[in-house]
Description:
The protein is α+β, with helices and mostly antiparallel strands. The protein has helices spanning 2-6, 30-37, 66-70, 88-95, 99-107, 113-118, 124-132, 146-153, 157-165, 188-192, and strands at 46-49, 61-64, 78-81, 84-87, 135-137, 142-143, 176-178. Strand 5 and strand 6 (142-143) form a beta hairpin. The longest helix has 9 residues, at 99-107.
Amino acid sequence: xxxxxxxKNVRNYKDYGGxxxxxxxxxxxxENFYKDMGPKPKKSMSIDRIDNNGNYESSNxxxxxxxxxxxxxxxxxxxxxxxxxxTMTQWAEEIGIKLPTLHKRITKxxxxxxxxxxxxxxxxxxxxxxxxxSVCTDRGELFESILEASIRTGANTASIRxxxxxxxxxxxxxxxxxAKNIQxxxxxxxxxxx
Length: 194
């Protein structure tokens, strides 16, 4: 802690002392540091600055787990949604979505924070349908899967699924049905429900 804030020859000095992070004079003595912070509550914990732009001093330090420290880095993606501010990792954990999925929704696909957080991920059944249920159209087109149909016609997979549930709906100027004549390789109970 002292070296990375005071010794320019230490590898990570640029991230601490080089940014102006310092240690209060009182903590230059280990005894004083120990009096202020006490022993580690758990072996896995380490010292963490609450404000990671602030200094090492008793009012700005705590014992933290690795997870807490990872959520307190200056490079984190911070999201404010419905008056609550958390890292992207914390949001992903809270809403039960994989971090890469949430990250792609916002950075790659340009979704709004609201849409990225509120849109549920597909269920395993929906993914199974998209990849395993063959479909055909009123134009006589036959596709091995909903996913293939989506790629070849430009129709959204969710729209195709809705058309399979409601025979009066159309998408991409087509009516869609399950190609039951080639579904004998799929579980009978699944076919009967569709």
